[in-house]
């Protein structure tokens, strides 16, 4: 606690100036945001996410014609509507969303609250089952870290650091 920043070190105007253009209110907060996701919401969130994948449909699914298992030699073609329904079902089963929650980094970081991503892994994301959602990409946020050095007396200052955030998840082994 003796190395924690004091009240005078937490001047929001000065700290925002130190951050420059790196302050992103979508992923950073000075006080705990009210929209923090609770554990009770996860079952409802699972249902919602499994029904409506977001973004562009993966090309691997969009290109599927669903010919396997049909009698050879005969020209069977699924209706456009049925093909689309099968693609949407498959996409909903294999979709790997990033779930964001607010994380309290403690008093030695500014802003103190950062929205971190995690991959939804409550069930398998493959057909047949076996694979799970894992991090595929990340981005880095610039935040401030309170650092104290003892050389020539105790000297503390805010330094910019890179903080990684999961930005994309993929279905993998």
TrEMBL record:
Family designation: Belongs to the noggin family.
Name of the featured protein: Noggin
Glycosylation sites: 11
UniProt cross-references to PANTHER family, sorted A to Z: BONE MORPHOGENETIC PROTEIN INHIBITOR, NOGGIN, NOGGIN
Source organism of this protein record: Pterocles gutturalis
Region forming the signal peptide: none
Keyword Disulfide bond: yes
Alphabetized UniProt keyword annotations: Chondrogenesis, Developmental protein, Differentiation, Disulfide bond, Glycoprotein, Secreted, Signal
